[in-house]
Fold this sequence. Notes:
The protein has two helices and 29 strands. It has about 400 residues and is mainly beta. It has three domains: about 20-140, Immunoglobulin-like; about 150-255, Sandwich (Immunoglobulin-like), CATH 2.60.40.2440; about 265-399, Immunoglobulin-like. Strands 1, 2, 6, 7, 8, 9 and 10 form a seven-stranded antiparallel sheet that branches. Strands 3, 4, 5, 11 and 12 form a five-stranded antiparallel sheet that branches.
Amino acid sequence: MRKLLSLLSIWLVVAITIVNAQPRNWFGDITTSDNALFENATMQLRGSVAATNPMQAQITKSNAKFLFTTSPNVYNPKWVGSTTNYSRTVNNRLTGAYAAFYFTSGDWDHDMEVPVVQGRYYTFISGQIEDDNNDIAILETSYFPNKVESVQQDPFIVSADEAVEVTVELTGFLNMNEYGWLEYSTDEWVTSDMIELSHLSGSFYTATIPGTPDQTDVQYRIRTTIEAGFDVADVDYLTLRLDDNYGNYYSYVSGYVVECGSQAGVVTSEPAFPLPDGPVTIYFNAAMGNGGLVNYPGDVYIHTGVITSESTNSSDWKYVKTEWGENTPETLMDSIDDNLYELQISSIVDYFGIPEGEEVLKVAMVFRSDEPISGDNYYEGKNADGSDIFVDVYALELN
Length: 399
């Protein structure tokens, strides 16, 4: 048994090494004030490539140095230039003789070099081949590339042959030579189509996915690029930002029918007429309402309070359970089916800590993602019109 465990341990170490033997770390000298000290930058996986966040050059230099490694302080393997071929250019997919060369031993390795301009931003991209050379790209911009803040689709429950309008919020206006795209696929990314985003207002942009036949599974993602006209095969190497919903893609099924038993509304309760001192289970259907949490891959939390006889209006929530964005076990929704969640409350009065003599009228709620999109902005589940959700609470006499 001990020998078997030892062999298993060795196999696991080898397996982990193989899985991680890809260029996932950038190591270079453009971010230090004198361009003399190398620093690490983690690369985010984007399907077939990995990319750094944009980095600002601190000094103008004709030969800023860089290479790729699997992780910080690990230099075997690494992806480099050679002693006779190490200069690289910006804003192109670099392949063949201009790729990053796979190196494990010898004395022919040389850091790659690229000219940089003080104040400009650089995004480094590499292919993800484990044991061979990798195509790369170095994207240079005079601006800090926009991030995607939110993605909303309308409608969220899509009929067969119905077009879908997708609204994308960016951190700001698209810059000159910065282009936004919606890319969608109906065959699990064997092929895809690109639709350029159109400016809606402010930092909001939109694109419309054409209607598709009944039961078509449509997946889509948002990207920004440095070029408008490009070969689709090169797009991953020309992409500044990519939002693919944490690798799960945004998606819908044309002609999809929600089947959640009796839980057909955005929120329903069991019992249907909850009492202040009695138990209640709240069901949240993320596929209904504004659809802000449909197919969300993480945990979902309820932000909740009550409307009581002391409230001045429907916005005057009392005894709110948590601060906005605070995750607690008491407010964690239990996932019981695709896009269907529940929260069991043994007593409304006890759960919210409502004092005796104060009448409970409604339970008020909004559902949100466990992690913010940015700042205090979260994916939210609300009514279709964006309003808060309420469950009526009934006086004891009704029972």
